[in-house]
């Protein structure tokens, strides 16, 4: 019997190549496989296996028993099953905006999926200040389809509850509850930031009782509102792009939660790209064009999401009461206000907390980095406190421009 059928163990490159040859019906007999571990995330091991003869390739992703970011996080290896299941579902719901899954192995807790060679991680591309004209359309389609079509508005309620049960994900939800909704808002020992930023945070965040109250409300909303099946970690490091193609990856944080969580996550990470451009690009037309594209993309994502969600509601709503006058507008409005708050929480945790983003930490000029971090934090606080009044994409940009102005004028 194959050793891969006996019990789980963490694979290395040699193991993964052997696994691909023995366990996957993908490569032809006589293939000459080479394997490289390419994972750069916080949790998993990712292997790219290529047949030198044919050029065919595949990805194997294996869940380890602890997070790579820190041994403090003990995470269930069942997350790989969750990721495989949701990728299959998202593939159907979004007409291929995610990679195709070929196999899930419950013993080795790994899945084999389409290799996206030719694409690049969006965060990396944005750090090179590349422009992707189709992205707003693609990501808004992904979010509208996955968030609407898995909700009680569109699904039989019993079928939806069965999905809720299938995607219960307590270990990874706990990471989000801690890193996003709790630790950034007090002087937690795991927080990690520049001293100049910490001095600002101590006064501007941790001593603001209203902010702390609002973040507590948001945490309990995240824990208790099973609205839609979320990706759960939808940032620019979880997206592959190339001209004319967008592929969303890494939905291992998936669970049923408030729909605005996914929307807010991607918006916050585009703000990081905006601030990176402001800090590192030379002044001039190219910089202004790039920043204008980021701003327009943020606005377009919100507006396209609203339009597509509303159209799906018109075409596929199955819940009678959901079509009472005014309810659709209330429902979509609540998603956008939730997204505003989540944008604020994501901005906060990536500056203050344990897990940072290269958009910010790669800014070599410390003075410019501190300024970028302060802009993100001023924006974060504003979006959290004013979330109920945020209803359209232009307001997100207005708040961003207002945060920049406050830092430039030293008025906070």
TrEMBL record:
<protein>
    <recommendedName>
        <fullName>S-methyl-5-thioribose kinase</fullName>
        <ecNumber>2.7.1.100</ecNumber>
    </recommendedName>
</protein>
<dbReference type="GO" id="GO:0005524">
    <property type="term" value="F:ATP binding"/>
</dbReference>
<keyword id="KW-0418">Kinase</keyword>
<comment type="subunit">
    <text>Homodimer.</text>
</comment>
<dbReference type="InterPro" id="IPR002575">
    <property type="entry name" value="Aminoglycoside_PTrfase"/>
</dbReference>
<keyword id="KW-0808">Transferase</keyword>
<keyword id="KW-0067">ATP-binding</keyword>
<dbReference type="InterPro" id="IPR009212">
    <property type="entry name" value="Methylthioribose_kinase"/>
</dbReference>
<feature type="domain" description="Aminoglycoside phosphotransferase">
    <location>
        <begin position="37"/>
        <end position="274"/>
    </location>
</feature>
<dbReference type="GO" id="GO:0009086">
    <property type="term" value="P:methionine biosynthetic process"/>
</dbReference>
<dbReference type="InterPro" id="IPR011009">
    <property type="entry name" value="Kinase-like_dom_sf"/>
</dbReference>
<dbReference type="GO" id="GO:0046522">
    <property type="term" value="F:S-methyl-5-thioribose kinase activity"/>
</dbReference>
<dbReference type="Pfam" id="PF01636">
    <property type="entry name" value="APH"/>
</dbReference>
<comment type="similarity">
    <text>Belongs to the methylthioribose kinase family.</text>
</comment>
<keyword id="KW-0547">Nucleotide-binding</keyword>
């Amino acid at each position: 019997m194959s050793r891969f059928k006996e019990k789980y163990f963490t694979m290395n490159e040699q193991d993964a190549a052997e696994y691909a040859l023995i366990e996957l019906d993908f490569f032809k007999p006589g293939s000459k496989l080479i394997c490289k571990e390419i994972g750069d995330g916080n949790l998993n091991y990712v292997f790219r296996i290529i047949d030198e003869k044919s050029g065919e390739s595949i990805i194997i992703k294996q869940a380890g028993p602890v997070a790579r970011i820190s041994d403090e996080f003990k995470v269930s290896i069942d997350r790989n099953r969750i990721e495989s299941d949701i990728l299959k579902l998202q593939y159907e719901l979004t007409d291929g905006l995610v990679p195709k899954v070929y196999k899930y192995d419950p013993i080795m807790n790994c899945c084999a999926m389409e290799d996206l060679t030719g694409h690049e991680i969006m965060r990396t591309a944005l750090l090179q200040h590349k422009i992707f004209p189709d992205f707003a359309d693609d990501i808004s389609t992904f979010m509208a389809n996955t968030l609407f079509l898995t909700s009680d508005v569109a699904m039989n309620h019993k079928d939806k509850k069965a999905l809720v049960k299938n995607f219960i994900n307590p270990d990874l939800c706990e990471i989000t509850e801690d890193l996003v909704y709790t630790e950034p808002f007090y002087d937690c020992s795991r927080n990690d930031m520049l001293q100049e930023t910490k001095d600002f945070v101590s006064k501007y965040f941790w001593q603001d009782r209203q902010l702390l109250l609002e973040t507590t409300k948001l945490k309990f909303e995240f824990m208790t509102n099973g609205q839609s099946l979320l990706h759960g970690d939808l940032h620019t490091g979880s997206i592959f792009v190339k001209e004319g193609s967008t592929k969303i990856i890494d939905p291992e944080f998936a669970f049923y939660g408030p729909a605005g969580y996914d929307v807010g996550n991607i918006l916050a990470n585009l703000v990081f790209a905006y601030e990176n451009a402001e800090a590192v690009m030379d002044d001039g037309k190219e910089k202004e064009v790039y920043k204008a594209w980021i701003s327009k993309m943020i606005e377009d994502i919100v507006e396209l999401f609203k339009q597509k969600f509303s159209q799906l509601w018109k075409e596929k709503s199955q819940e009678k009461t959901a079509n009472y006058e005014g309810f659709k507008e209330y429902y979509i409005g609540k998603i956008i206000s939730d997204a505003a708050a989540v944008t604020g929480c994501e901005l906060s945790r990536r500056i203050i907390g344990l897990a940072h983003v290269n958009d910010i930490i790669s800014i070599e000029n410390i003075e410019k980095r501190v300024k970028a971090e302060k802009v993100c934090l001023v924006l974060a606080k504003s979006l959290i406190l004013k979330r109920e009044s945020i209803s359209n994409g232009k307001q997100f940009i207005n708040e961003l421009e207002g945060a920049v102005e406050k830092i430039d004028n030293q008025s906070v």
